[in-house]
Design a protein that fits this description.
about 400 residues, alpha+beta, 4-stranded antiparallel beta sheet, 3-stranded antiparallel beta sheet, 17 helices, 7 strands, about 50% helix, elongated
Amino acid sequence: MSLTDVQVRNAKPTDKQYKLAAGKGLYLVVSPKGGKWWRVRYRFSGKQKELSVGTYPDVSLKLATSRRDELRQKLEKGIDPSKERKLEKITAKHADERTFEVIARDWMDKFGADWTDKYKKLTKSRLEQNAFPWIGNSDIDSITAPELLIILRKVESRGALETAHRVRKLCSCVFRYAIANGVAQRDPAADLVGALPPTKTKHLASITDPKMVGALLRAVDGYDGQFITKCALKLSALVMLRPVNIRSSKWEDIDLDTAQWKIPMGSMKMRRTHIVPLSKQAIDILKEVRALTGGGTFVFPSIRTKQRPMSENTITAALRRLGYSGDEMTAHGFRSMASTILHEQGYNSDWVELQLAHVDGNTVRASYNYAQYLPERKRMMQDWADYLDALKAGAEVISIKSKSAV
């Protein structure tokens, strides 16, 4: 006979577990502690199996009967309900592992070891601020190009067009990583190439007129701020390095005896070792600084603590103090100054570009060629330093006289 609601409700526990049949494989299990749960017995591929369909009273007799009937319908379609449930549990268990944020963080962990600290922090910040709040919890394989474009438009609308382009590229990297790991089928970010307006190239201000360069160098010589800052300014004009490499320079990378500054790939933007031949003038500046900071890690430590490098705004602030606005000269402008003048003076472009640490088209070859043209670059850097001395002294503006300018 079919089980009734009254029988289910009044079923009392005994010293042993027992079952009450409800028909067509459905039965109620009553435990010695009073617990009651529904189970369905069925056969699939000749094997007898059982499956739980809930506990009483959360699942009533009527609901348990309905769930039994659903299982029987699946059996008629050749579906094993037990196997299907296991797959659902696995999918649910790993659902959070397929979200965009989880995959993105895994990608950053895998590849971040080869990034500079600054780039690692910037990448994390861009994704956390511009992507995770909207698609972070979404299954990565469910995200569409139109959905991603809405997010990028939000970034663009606040005037951060370049950031929007960078976020798209980062998202593309995450999607490609997901595809490689079998959790996504395609990269919707790739469909958005050309969907955003192009960014306008922003040229950092630089002084390249020789007479004005001389005036700048004389102003630097007269700088009355921190001595270490003054030395960083003077060195910036001589070494053609990015501001971040100057302010974070370490004594362990500088060999004054061989007149070489060898910056490890971990500190370089293009991820390759870089050698800077040091002119006599650069060595003189470094020797002066060594008397003050040689006992620490950084050549130009922070004013507040020697455990950290000089602030990224220090050199820029010094230029402002000297009266140079952001439209006239920037910390990065010392590189442009050297590049422009050396190219105009006829120096081999390969020497100049290598000294600027611009990446070679063949990145594999470039990783091994950091010492290429080193004798020629050494002469060029000394020529450059001598030329700057002449400009600073107010000499007549003439070409750099050197056989190395070939």
